[in-house]
User: Fold Rieske domain-containing protein from Holothuria leucospilota.
Amino acid sequence: MDEDFPQDLVKALKEVVDSNRWQNIGAAEKFKTKKCTRLLSEDGEDMVIVFVAPDKFYAMDASCPHAGGPMNLGDIEDIGGHMSIICPWHGYSFRLDDGSSPTGLQQQMYTVKVLEGNIYVNTSSELLVPSSNTTENCEDSKEDISSAVVPSNADTLCDWAVRILMTADPHEKVQLTHKVKERWDSGDIKEIGSATPPSQPHRQDDLQVLAPGKIKRGKAGTKASRIAVLHSLANIEQWAIDLSWDVIARFSDISIGQSGKLPREFFTDFVKVASDEAKHFNLLQGRLKELGSHFGALPVHNGLWHSAGETKDSLLARLAIVHMVHEARGLDVHPITQARFARQNDTESVSLLEVIYKDEITHVAAGMKWFTYICKHSDPEMDCIPKFHELVRQKFRGHLKPPFNEEGRQTAGMTKEWYVPLMKPSEEDTIARKGTNS
Assistant:
C-alpha cells in the first residue's frame, strides 16, 4: 500500500472510487513486468503507466507534448536527482513526479494510488485494461525472431521502417507510421538510408496466434460474426502496415538495370500505402470498440506474412504476390463482404469498408506501377505480363479463383490478361465463354 496515502482515507476512497474519477486498472503485480505499459482509452486519450522499482507507479499521457512521440517506449533515468522518462523521438525528458521538462514543456500526469494490491488512476477516461490471456502460437511463430538494432540517433526512412517493424503494440505502430509519413512528406526525414529488417514483425505477447486454418471468420450474419470479420480485417491491416515498411527497408539498396537504384517516388508511394493501412486499422479498431470489442479480443493468424518469407529475395516477386495477388483478392471479396454488412443494416461498417476499398485500389495500382517499372528498366527488359505469370506460378500456391471484381481491378490498371490465365483451365474456359456471349 502507498505509505504516503493516509490510512484513514482508504475507506473513503473505496466508497467513492466507482462514482468518481478513480478507476481500478488491476493488480499492481501485473504492471511490474515492464517499465512502461500503455493503456488504451475509449476517447483516444491513451495513458502510460510507469513502474519504478520497488513499488512506485506513475501515470501520464501516452504522447509526448512536443511532437507526439510514444512515451511508453521511453527510457527511465535519474536526471538531477529526479526520476524522469525520456521521449524516444527527440530525447526530451519529463520528471515523473510532476511532468515538468527542462525544455519548458509540461507532460500531463495523473494521480496514482495503490490500495490493497490494486492500482487506481484518477482519470475521466475509460481505460481498457490489458488482457491477461496467454499466447497460443502457431508453429511458425515459435521460431526465433531476429531483431535489427537501430541506433537511437538514426533518422533515415529505413531506420524508422525497422523501428516500426519492431514495435509490437499495434496502436503504437499506427502512431509511428503516421508520424513518419508526415516527416517524410515534409522533408524532415531526408535520407532513404539502409537497414536490415527483422525476419518477422514483433507482436504483443498477449495476442493469441493460431494457424490460418483454425480461425473462424463467419459471414457477418450476427453481431458476433460481424465482430469476427472486422477483427480479421484489422489483423490483415496490421500485417499490411508491416509489409509496406518491410518492402521499404528490405529492398532499399537493390539496383534496377542501367537506371541504378529505385527512385525516391517508390519510397513515397509505399510510405503512403503504410499510412493508408494504419488508417484502416484505426477505422476497424474504432468500429470494434463501438460494437463492444477491441483488437486482440479474438485469435489471429500470420498467414499473410508467409508471402513475405516466400518473396524476401525478390522485389518483383513481392510486388506480384502481395500487391497484385493478395491485395487484388481484397478487391474481389469487397462487394460480398460489404453486402453482408448491408443486409444487417450495419451502415457504419459499410461506410468504413468503402473507404478501405477505395484505398486498396490505389495499393494494387502501386504494385502494378512499380512491377511494370522494374520490368521495363531491367537489363534486358522483361515482358511484364509473362513475368507476372511466371512469378505467381512459382511463389503462389494454387490457382487464382473467381469471382473477380473486374471493375475494381480495371480501375487499378489490372486488365484480364494479367489474371485470367492464372485460373484453373476449366474456370478460364468458363470466363472466356462468358466474355464471348456478353
In short: Residues 338 and 350 are 6 Å apart (CA to CA). DSSP finds twelve helices and 13 strands in the chain. The two ends are 77 Å apart (CA to CA).
